[in-house]
Design goal:
The protein is an all-alpha fold and 266 residues long. It has one domain. It is built from 10 helices and no strands. The longest helix has 32 residues. The mean pLDDT is 83.
Length: 266
């Protein structure tokens, strides 16, 4: 029987620590997730503690928020992950020596993202009926507007994240998972924007999702559809989606110039 060697254990652990030290992204990730969870649940606690009147509606509010948040998350991830699969397989070079245009790839990624989002969130929404007696479709026609805006925002973020990974390599892949959660506390998913500190509220209103979730609460709590929220969200999404498409196309162009498409899995 070979004896356990503290030297070998220490050497291997030191190797992993050196790997951690060499990547600032990995170091940031160590504190990132606990910090986001702390901020998010801190605001939820503040909101519920100061608004006991809404607690009896908490099930509907929280389930609606979770399902709509998943629309944003799945649409962003659905686009990014499919693009990353092409990078992992080093297939981008082969794709772009064909007549395929970058804008055609963007549209294809959007279609796949939409299909994945509808399947994923649709199943969860249907299961919420027998499990909790909650029907998301009770929101009615405004739900279509909420869904559209969250999908558009997810696509915009997904395109920008994909462009960053194409530029900096697969080492930045974790951005795809971290980016969407970074803005979660600002989106007012589970609490009104007024719950945030005053200095954060203007930044929050620049996010289309903030208008969507405020509109959702207006429908559920007051049976009032706020068309202005959807309009603001659409206008913001138009700008962000245009930015996302531009950044993605620029990243593809730069990768072609550098000849890095064939090394896209690095």
């Amino acid at each position: 029987m070979i004896a356990i060697s503290p030297q070998r254990i220490g050497a291997l652990a030191l190797r992993y620590l050196y790997l951690l030290r060499s990547s600032w992204i990995r170091i940031v990730e160590l504190a990132y997730w606990p910090t986001v969870q702390m901020i998010l649940w801190g605001f939820i606690t503040q909101y519920l503690a100061g608004h006991s009147a809404v607690i009896h509606q908490a099930t509907g509010l929280l389930l609606s928020a979770v399902l709509l948040w998943d629309v944003l998350f799945r649409s962003q991830l659905g686009l990014s992950v499919v693009f990353f699969e092409e990078m992992h397989s080093r297939n981008l070079g082969q794709l772009f020596i064909s007549p395929l245009q970058p804008i055609e790839m963007i549209l294809a990624l959007m279609l796949v993202s939409l299909a994945r989002t509808v399947i994923g969130v649709g199943v969860a929404a249907l299961l919420a009926v027998p499990f909790y007696g909650f029907n998301l479709f009770y929101i009615g026609l405004p739900l279509a507007g909420f869904f559209l805006n969250l999908v558009l925002m997810g696509w915009a973020i997904g395109l920008m994240v994909s462009a960053l990974v194409l530029r900096f390599g697969m080492g930045a892949e974790s951005i795809a998972w971290a980016a969407i959660f970074a803005i979660a506390p600002l989106c007012g998913i589970y609490y009104p924007i007024a719950t945030l500190p005053h200095w954060l509220q203007p930044l929050s209103w620049w996010l289309p999702a903030s208008h969507v979730f405020e509109g959702m609460r207006s429908v559920l709590l007051h049976q009032l559809f706020r068309a202005d929220y959807l309009l603001y969200a659409l206008l913001l999404n138009a700008g962000y989606l245009a930015l996302g498409v531009s950044v993605f196309l620029a990243a593809i162009h730069k990768a072609r110039e550098r000849g890095s498409l064939l090394q896209s899995g690095e």
